[in-house]
Amino acid sequence: MKNIFESNLKYCSLLYHTPTHTTHTTMKFAPSELKKLIEASYEKENVNVGKFIVDQGLSTDRVKVFTIDGSSDVVVVHRGSASASDWSDNLKMATQLFRGLESSGTYKIHLRQQKKIVKKYGAANIVLIGHSRGGSYASSFYKKNMGKQVITYNKPVTVQNIMSDKAAILMGKKRGRDKNETKIRTEGDAVSIGEKLLRNKVEVVVPSDSNNPVSNHSPDALDALGEEELIGSGFGSLKKLRVADLKAIIKKHKKQYGLPGVTGLKRAELKAIVESIG
Fold this sequence. Notes:
There is one protein chain. The chain is of the alpha/beta class. It is about 40% helix and about 15% strand. It has 9 helices and 9 strands. The strands form 2 sheets. It has a 7-stranded mixed beta sheet with strand order 2-3-4-5-6-7-8, with helices on both faces. Strands 1-9 form a two-stranded antiparallel ribbon. A hairpin with a 5-residue loop joins strand 3 and strand 4. The longest helix is centred in the middle third of the chain and has 17 residues. It starts with a helix and ends with a helix. The N terminus is likely disordered.
């Protein structure tokens, strides 16, 4: 039994990889923008989403590519499971402990398309977005340095992910938060519930009083976020935030990060707390 455990531990440690990314300007999205971009990724037709102009040549029924007039930023959205082949791969991964994401046929389809996108636009300009299984694709490609920023929503957490994280802890590997990676999860979402077992916590938690697993996993749940909450890297420029704004951020994330109370704190103290989480 000990030999089996050590073998599995060694295997999982190989999965643990901290990517090296240079500093680039990152993007922030209003919840409604993010919702519409994710919804567009599931459509067969390639259509523009507000200011985001679809690249007809590179967009497919699985991956949507958007550019923005006057900007070098390119938004690439990988959709989640929506076909028989997707669900077949999901079943195989659920029933075969060490069958990794990268061994699936659907992953290879998304990877080939991502490589074409990188070839045209360059990884330093690409923002990756993924919902559900698409979040796993986006996260994987980010770790392979195929994008400058990644945003995932209700990304599934597998036994393999948890074992990899635990293996890293046992081997003494430290893993700080990557500020170019934003994880979003709806309360009550069953697919991403394993996030609670990982060290790096979810940055944005979408509130939900529903017990419906379908609605909690759907992009529609993003409607619960206010439009003033921009989703992306960190909290932007803190210089423009008032004391009341800083207190509101701390109160919202108090439970998630175990933050102290705000009573009696000065602006510099509040700013330091917010900087520690964003």
